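Lab notebook, bench 4. We co-purified these components, and the gel suggests they stay together. Before we commit to crystallization screens, I want a quick structural picture of the whole thing.
Request: model the full complex, all chains together.
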Amino acid sequence: MALFFQTFASAPRSAQSHLPRLLLAAIVSIAFALLSALPAHAQTPQSRYRLYHPTLQTHLYTTDLNEYSVLGTRGWNQENEAHRVFNAAGRYNGGLLKPYFRLFNSNLRIHFWTTDRNEYDVLSRAPGYVGENIESYLLAAPQAGAVPLFRLVLLNTAKHLWTTDENEKNVLTQRGWGFEGIDGYVLPATPVAAQIFTQAQAARLLTQATWGPNMVEINRTQALGASAWVEDQFLRPSLDKHVDYVARGGAIGCNPCDSRFINAAMETFWLQAIKGEDQLRQRVVFALTEIFVVSTVNSAVDIQAEAHAAYLDMLAKNSFGNFRNLLEDVARHPTMGHYLSHIRNEKADLVTGRLPDENFAREVMQLFSIGLWQLNADGTRRKDASGADIPTYNQADILGMARVFTGLSWGGPDTSDASWSGIPGNGPNAARWDVAMQMYPNYHSPQEKRILSGVVIPANTDANTSLKIALDTLFNHPNVGPFIGEQLIKRFVTSNPSRAYVGRVSAAFANSGSGVRGDMKAVMRAILLDAEARDDAKLADPTFGKLREPMVRFGNYMRAFNVTTYDGRYKIHNLEDPVSSLGQNPLRAPSVFNWFRPDYAPPGDILNMGLVAPEFQITHETTVTGYINFITETADRDNESAREIFRQYGSVQDFLAGNTTAEIALADRPQALLDRLNLLLLSGRLTPSTRAIIAEALADIAVDSYRWRENRVSAAIGLIMAAPEYVVQK
Amino acid sequence: MKSAMINTHKARRQFLKQFSAVATAASPFAANLALIGSAAAQSANDYKALVCVFLNGGNDQSNTVVPLNGAAYQSYAAGRLTLALPQAKLSALTPLNYNGTPLGMPLEMAALKRVFDAGQCAVLANVGTLVQPTTLAQWNGGNATVPVPYQLFSHSDQANSWQTGLPNRASQTGWLGRVGDLIAPAFNSGALSICMSVAGNNVIQSGAQTTQYQLTTQGAIKVDDLSILMGSAKAGAALRTLLTEPRTHVLEKQLNKIATRAIASEATVTAALANVVINTVFPNTQIGAQLKMAARMIAARQALGQKRQIFYVSVGGYDFHDNLIASQALRLRELSEGLAAFYQATVELNVAQQVTSFTASDFGRALQSNGRGSDHGWGGHQFILGGAVKGNRIYGTMPEAVLKGAEDVGQGRLLPTTSVDEYASTLALWFGVTPAQLETVVPNIGRFARTNLGFMG
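Here is the predicted assembly.
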């Protein structure tokens, strides 16, 4: 709404005056008589959508979802379902319905609506106006569950606005608008989660919540709606266990099964990301790998595929579980134990003075649960009496927490010293990456542990109880909801959520609705079904959205064009080289601080506006150029043929060529081709100017030139995926 | 094997790419030739470069400059336990300005030690982030009675404080970026930023006007299809338009600003680097490759129209909680050999006197062992290298490597006795910042006693 007001406040006023209201005095009795003659039967409410055109500076209302959808790609900003009206005369819950007439002013290219038959008739004969008959029906009088539809006019113009929002009406009447009365009574808009989807809206949800839309999933999601899609995703199983892929040396049914070493972990990561039907889980796992970071870079776990596969399985298991379990499983995971060095961390040696390792103790607080500063539920920092930020912990708390994380080593039935210092292997007593670390009491600190929030774990508390108290203390800290919630919003929806949105996600973390704290399903529902995430009007907000991560962009390609491989293996072993590739790779973050920090802001406008854009931390001359080359090269593939030939020798793109048969069939109709790619890659948000630029380029690839169909498709995909309106997800 | 059809297609693409490379490189290169002429006419010798070598993770200073023998070694070994380097693994330093406890460096650092011994490398001891000079009494066991840096011992915050020079407030700029703001307009005629990074985005090179430019270890890379995409000139032009046109969405706008800069700079940089020859052999390591790129850009300075250059290189792997002995030996060898080769390259290019490189890191580390490594600390030791450095000397105050020593804030974490501000200010003055401008570069410098630590000649 803020944007709307701003636009209108600065809009030049048209010199043209609207027709005096007086002339159009209603002859209600006639209309009333006509309507009451109709038979009374139950009527079904239908959604009425609002759009805004920034150049024409006018609103349009339509009950036609297809019109709403198409206009959204033709320069109109979609402003969601505005309210619900009725599609036939009669009564609704006893209340009489009256017709709502639509007119078009061809001079001004604006529409006008009235329930006043006389006004409609007079205007229909006025110069420039065309009567367009009855659009829908409104309730004639107030009744339970209905709200008034206010009509306003921009003074001294013919521009009108209709709203059910009392606040909007009041604000506008102080900004040059006149209130003209109530046209009738309507039902409020359907709750967002239950609204009927357009294809574009379905594609947008899939863009936020999956590795990328494809046509099948767009249509399925459109039929389900947002809420049902999310619930459906919660139930979908994973394709496989990552550890099984690694143990097998390939996917289920592989032949030969010869995936080895860390490459096997990369392959199973991509296989599930691209092919898994549990797409939401796959994206949650990816988001969690960027919060609870383990990496093969500068790491004690640099080549062990089993270690990373087991860690991914653990994240998958907890994606829709409870955060408390996730936190403990992370803390007890041997892969994390190696990465942040708390496996085999020993109690202090009071003789020599050796102290426990503080590494995990620090990062479990700074990065995995509460962060550095005390937060309000909306994610803003709490202030002390002098207005200063308040740290969440101090060095003494770290010492206490380091004592907690002593005594952990390999899990399993054997708790002897041999197992404490054991190494992974294949024997019956071998240490296993997929078994949680356990406490070895002899190595656990018996000292008193002072941790944050004034909690003191008494001396000689048993090891597992110490850990439980510490993790419970972290889990129940008020920071966790806003700290983790805001990061997850940034991974799925937007880099700059409103404080209220963060607050709503924090509230869902604090209480799932049935009294459960830390329910990840409730958190994901709150993130994806929030009005701010689903609001079409946000598509026109110049600060909304996020930079798609390079890995996600490649994932989008592979899903949109159904990339399959000749042997079922996704041999995407390294995308890290920014010159020839993407500058980003799963499981290879440079440090536990991930590829980028959630509060990173690039110098310039974004920083100066007080906004953040985390993914810009890895976005610079090199990676921008590398990505463009990578994606145009990816798009420049000859469908099946190149893949078969290059599969043994080629680069990543060679054996991962997409199937563009459906696109190639549209090569002689560039606008239809662009419509398809617009939906698949841009959720229907291709701007008219970019469409024109690409269409001109496609026309330049002459019909009957060498491989013109393939070249047109490759050019169209490459140009769209290079375009900033694609790279920035809205 | 590849089929003939595919070969034809690939060959066509390759040909088109080569064609476009020639077409776009031509005009900026011509402009550069003109620039070379005017720069050369002024003064070929007026040149300086600063190279920041950032060690991500927090280098362990106690095993970098180490007490060589005697009681000092025994105290060190008592704190380090299994982390203590054996005396046989140390090579003695003989600093000219130092009468304290004998010191050594690990044998792995032999290459850098040779430069130190020859007088082109200095050590700055116990330097770290400070808001103001702080005593152990003022530290007061952690309940400090004077302002101290935010979030001490946190990687992200302390690395940020080192780079911004403002440890207890938010800053959008770094001190090398602010140096760039002051110096670039008077010295550099080319459009390329004075601040160049071979290691990705950083804060230290962000200025109010200065925008850092990112290079790869192979130079600048080119957008392949700007002239011809899929055989179409219009498609190539469309790609250029989409990447460079003004946008209203703030993220899209930022993206296109970067792409526009990348496209504009690439031709200039590639052309300038084309004829650069450096014979010095760099080690085949990440830091070696980054420093080699900096050396090549130094060699190309005239073609780039740059009389002042500021480089940022950086490597990770310095967070030695675990496996300290083996990991640090590897890291320090790479660092030492990379820095020594870089110094040698500046000799080869005849700019040794004009190029100064220096190290920085998140923080130093605790002396106290955790059994396998050391935990996050505060002050640490850094190296400054170059022909203009008054080397074979130790600056600042070398702390005792002992638990509960005069600077120990706990577990042998060092309260810094020299601030990052003083370190930065010494380098900035050498680079040409005037004393009056120092407060712009290091706003807190007035709180400290020295603006010049004396390590630059």
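Residues 1-42 of chain B have pLDDT under 50 and may be disordered. Worth comparing against the SEC data before the next meeting. Residues 124 and 395 of chain B are 5 Å apart (CA to CA).
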